[in-house]
């Protein structure tokens, strides 16, 4: 049984790369819904429907555990999938998101109790980060900043135009001593963001925290861990295959991953 990774597109390859580096022994199946990316400006119901279809596909491919790398899907669909879909259809399997590890890291990092969140419009509107952070510490002030231009810049090779756009997104977050990068793609810009905010601000990048959280989860759930196969296979599947997707996947994963196209 494999570890499945679900994303709306290819940004989730950044976290996939760090998961594979940290836990190379397992078999991974990446699913990116490139035909329907972006999810970040869609309604909650549509994100739920799309995410459910991707999750169903990954379970049919024998994934024991699915990481929802997409923050928008984690914000809009994860709780419903965990509470309703999973118990009915796959009670012994698990779906994990990326919001809670980032929320925990932010709560641990902040000293002035002011946390900023950069994310897609849909994730900010859902207030999912606020909910998770306030479960841990209700006194923290949270400032959400949608950053909708960053994903298309990466997807379309426009990275050189990012610095002034990032600067304007960060301005409203001045005063926060901790900033969560709440989107699959934003770790791509983490060095620029860290440079711009300076050393006094902690920048929480999910690719740096989720692998250790998963390792810890697997240690605590040995019955599940034992069902994971360990043949070091990696498969990357997408719902639309273009030259741009191949270029971006190579850039994000680094070793020319072979993308194959599937139909849901
Ligand atoms: N994967 C999405 C996220 O992490 C970004 C891309 C999209 O909008 O679908 O929120």
Descriptive report:
α9 crosses α10. Strands 4-3-1-2-9-10 form a six-stranded parallel β-sheet, sandwiched between helices. The relative contact order is 0.19. The chain has 13 helices and ten strands. β9, α13 and β10 form a beta-alpha-beta unit. The mean pLDDT is 96. The chain binds D-glutamic acid (DGL). The site of D-glutamic acid has 17 residues, from α3.
Short description:
Helix content is 47%, strand content 19%. It has helices at residues 13-22, 44-60, 71-76, 78-89, 99-109, 121-126, 128-136, 150-155, 162-170, 190-197, 206-220, 222-225, 243-253; strands at residues 2-7, 28-32, 63-68, 94-96, 114-119, 141-146, 178-182, 202-205, 234-238, 259-261.
**Overall pLDDT score:** 96
Q: Percentage of helical residues?
A: 40-55%
Name of the level-1 CATH class of the largest domain: Alpha Beta
Element order, helices and strands? EHEHEHHEHEHHEHHEHEHHEHE
Largest sheet: 6 strands, parallel
Q: Which small-molecule species are bound to the chains here?
A: D-glutamic acid
CATH architectural grouping of the largest domain? 3-Layer(aba) Sandwich
What structural category do the secondary elements indicate? alpha/beta
Briefly note the CATH topology name of the largest domain. Answer: Rossmann fold
Count of individual domains: 2
Residue stretches low in confidence (pLDDT < 50, at least 5 long) are none
- Overall radius of gyration: 17 Å
Secondary structure tally, helices: 13
Walk across the major sheet and give the strand order: 4-3-1-2-9-10
Q: What amount of the residues lies in strands? A: 15-25%
General form: globular
Please tally the β strands and state the result.
10
Terminal CA distance: 20 Å
